Amino acid sequence: MSWTKWLDRLVLYLPVVLMGLLAAASYWLVQKSPPSEAARPEKVLRVEPDYLMRAFSVRTFDWEGRPKTVVSGALARHFPLSDSFEIDEVFIRSIDARGRVTQAQANRALTNDDVSRVDLLGQARVVGLGATDRSSADEWRVSGEHLQVFLQERRLVSTKPVVAQRGADRFSADAARLDDNAQELVLQGRVRGQLMPPSKAISRNP
Question: Is the Cβ–Cβ distance between 147 and 124 less than 8 Å?
């Protein structure tokens, strides 16, 4: 084949070769390019619970292996969107860094993932004790229909009517804030109280 004929044939097929190369390059670019925001599948945010626990009891411990919390209930639902729990017939026992015990129970509770903040709903009751489970004159008790409790901080807030007791003293109010570390109880709204005189031991001479 003469040089002239070979060149004529190359010129004839050159557009086809170039189109093939362009098509291959376009396909490679499409494969390597990240998908656009519109093309990406939307992430589904689940609002329903992703798992349940029935008739359960869960214990947690601090870094030194000491008991920190015990949470039990009839039914717990975990919600991944907020990483929170809803617990029916809940009972919680929490021990702070000083060994003081707080116990809480209610018909229902909403908690964060580490159970440091708890909303108690329906026949809620919270009891704060000293460094042991034994009750004393310093024991405080608060009951109501909605109590928000910060267990490790031993704080409590309620915007609903409550009954608060410390030792033999008893108070009722439309709302309350309690800070056990500051030894402070703030009652709001219609407040009624009953203060009992300190008991005195009676000694008898033989």
Answer: yes
Say how far residue 23 (Cα) sits from the centre of its chain: 55
What element of type H or E holds 26?
helix 3-32
Q: Are 138 and 169 in contact (CB under 8 A)?
A: no
pLDDT in tens, 132-148: 655 555 689 999 999 99
Rounded to an integer, what distance in angstroms lies between the CA atom of residue 94 and that of residue 103? 6
Give CA–CA dist 189/23, Å, rounded: 78
d(CA 174, CA 180): 20
Whether pTM > 0.85 for this model: the answer is no
Residue 89 burial (C-beta neighbours within 10 Å; 0-12, 13-18, 19+): middle
The alpha carbons of the chain give a radius of gyration, in whole angstroms, of 34
| Run of H or E including 14 | helix 3-32
The C-alpha atoms of residue 186 and residue 46 are separated, in whole angstroms, by 40
